[in-house]
Structures are given as C-alpha cells and as structure tokens.
Design goal:
The protein is α+β, with helices and mostly antiparallel strands. It has helices at about 40-45, 65-75, 105-110, 145-155, 180, 190-200, 215-225, 245-250, 285-290, 295-300, 310-315, and strands at about 1-5, 20, 25-30, 50-55, 60-65, 80-85, 90-95, 100-105, 115-120, 125-130, 135-140, 145, 160-165, 170-175, 205-210, 230-235, 255-260, 270-275, 280-285.
C-alpha cells in the first residue's frame, strides 16, 4: 500500500473500506476495498473527510483481484456461458442457453486445492435454464502473487466448466405388457413419457404396443430402429418376473448393453443399451408413478449426445436416493448429485 492525496487517486485501487454516516438515515460502506477510484468519486470522498487514501501500489509479479479473476475465468470457462460484470474480484458464470452443466470435478479440485483461488459451481450434470448462475470465481486476497495464477494455468486443464446444449431428438415409445396390449388396463406410460421428453423439446414419432411375447417385442424394437427415432424407450416388463421379457428382447437385438440395473432409487431396474448411435432404454414401472427417477438423470445426458458408460451409471449411487419430497424441487436437490 501507499498513501496518496485523494485528488491524485483517480484510476488507483482503494485498499480499505470507507464508511459513510448520515445521522438517523444511513451508516454503511460507501466505497469498498478494491474499488477503482473515478473522477466522480473524488468530491464524495472529500465530503467524507478523506483527503488522503491508502491505495494499492502495483508491484511486478502481483495481480489485483479483478485481473486475477479474469485470468481464472478465461482458463476455466468453456462453451455455453455468459458472465457477470466483475465486482470486487468476483465473476459469475451464467448459462447462455438451456442445457446441461458439465464440470470436470477432478480439475476443479486441483484448482481449489491451490489456496487463495476459489471456484464454486453447481453440481456436475445439472440441467439448467438460460440465465442460471452455474459457477462463480474469485481470489481471496486483494492482491495475489501472479505465480499462483500461473501454477493454476499449468496444473489444470482448460474449459472445465461448460453448458452443453440440449439437442431435441425424435423418440419412439414401445409399451409392453399383456395387460395393456389386450386392453385390460389403459396405457399410463405413454402420456407420462411424452410429457417428460416434451420438456426437452423432443418429439414422439413412433408409439406402439406389444404383448409380453419376446419375439413381438423384438419386432417392435426393429421397427423403431428402422424409423427416424433416435431414442427408443421400452416401458414395462423390466422386472425379474417370468412374464417380463423386455430386457431379454433388447439384449437379443444386438448392439451394446451398458447396464441392466442402476444404483438409483427409484429406478433400480433401468436398462441402457446402444444400437449404433441410437440409445435404447428399458424403463421400470417407477417412471410411471414417481416424480423423478433414474430416467430423469440419464435423459438430458443422452440429449447432449453424451454416450454413457457403466461407470457413469455406477457413480449415481452417491446421491442416487430420491427423498420423494412432497414438493419436488428437482434439479435443485441432492438427487443424482
């Protein structure tokens, strides 16, 4: 720090808060530490009795908090983001469009382990709306050694925070089960799934029904694969009961089976497979009656063209328990996090 006359301080950075008191009306901070003094500030500072100020004196190899925050933002921010104006060394990262937040958690930990540098984010794989604050960054001291920022840039990857756009896809729904196929009960799955995929702008282009006969299910899946549908949802027949043949039918269609089962409640009997670029999901009955299930966790990721692995599904065990709250606030809750 150094002391300068207030009239000579324009363009310099204040090193301490300055309080303003108006008896009976106001008492608080008029100018905060880190504020860059302007011509318009000088008369007000003089009115507050500040003829001299402590200001930051630049020393080679150091960065002001604002400059450091900009460096952090430029290193860590990827696609799909807008940014707030910088204020007191803080920058907010905002979703530039509806999409899915992706955070490289391992790289984030590297940066936050350096000390004096802070990046806070929402959870990885959170669906977000345009304008949602997804992350924020700042440095702890008013002035930071530039070596700390250089170290961050050296040890961590770039673009570790991004928002991927949701890509609405064409969807096929195959409702299985003798009880629906033979008209014993009304199909409830179709309307629920249509509403869920419509939330992401998807269009249902094929909807058919099948009995529990394995060969009929395979025939319906083949028709869906030959249609314009990019995602195929098979509903019902996913348990271990002898009449439930959907998992076997999907297996026998070939392709790559990622998992039959997920560490998510509700949604333990989820099946995920890929046939070329098309995803096939076997959806358990809980999707019909629970507000949120494993399906809600994997669907937005599929719609960003991410190809999920078994490890991706296995990781959902930590946070995979839905509390079935009376008022659902998903995705602003612990489910899937």
């Amino acid at each position: 720090m150094k002391t300068v006359k207030t009239v000579d301080a324009v363009g310099m950075i204040l090193c301490h808060d300055i309080t303003k008191i108006v008896p009976g009306e106001f008492k608080g901070v008029a100018f905060k530490k880190g504020h860059i003094i302007t011509e318009e500030d000088v008369p007000e500072l003089l009115k507050l009795g500040k003829d001299n100020l402590f200001v930051w004196e630049h020393i080679e190899g150091t960065l002001h908090e604002n400059d450091a925050a900009i460096r952090i933002k430029e290193h860590t921010a990827g696609c799909g983001l807008d940014f707030s104006a910088i204020k007191e060394g803080k920058i907010d990262f905002l979703a530039a469009e509806d999409g899915l937040l992706k955070v490289d958690v391992d790289e984030l930990l590297k940066i936050n382990s350096l000390r004096e540098i802070v990046i806070a984010t929402l959870h990885n794989n959170t669906p977000v709306k345009k304008g949602t604050k997804v992350a924020g960054t700042r440095v702890i001291p008013l002035v930071i050694n530039e070596e700390k920022i250089l170290e961050m840039e050296k040890i961590s990857k770039k673009e570790i925070i991004k928002v991927l756009p949701i890509k609405p896809k064409k969807v096929a729904i195959i409702t299985t089960g003798n009880e629906v196929f033979y008209g014993r009960i009304t199909d409830k799955f179709g309307p629920i799934l249509t509403r869920k995929v419509n939330e992401y702008g998807c269009e249902v282009v094929y909807h058919t029904f099948s009995s529990d006969d394995k060969e009929m299910i395979k025939e319906k899946i083949a028709q869906a694969l030959n249609s314009e549908a990019e995602v195929i949802l098979c509903t019902g027949g996913m348990s271990v009961d002898p009449d439930d043949r959907t998992p076997l039918a999907i297996r026998e269609m070939g392709g790559e089976l990622i998992t039959y089962g997920s560490p998510v409640l509700p949604g333990a009997m989820l099946l995920l497979a890929y046939h070329g670029e098309k995803a096939i999901l076997g959806l358990p009955g809980c999707v019909m009656h629970s507000k949120r299930t494993a399906f809600d966790l994997v669907l937005p990721r599929i719609l960003t063209d991410e190809k999920l692995t078994f490890e991706d599904i296995a990781k959902y065990g930590h946070g995979g328990l839905c509390l079935d709250c009376p008022i659902c606030t998903y995705p602003h809750c612990s489910f899937g996090k």
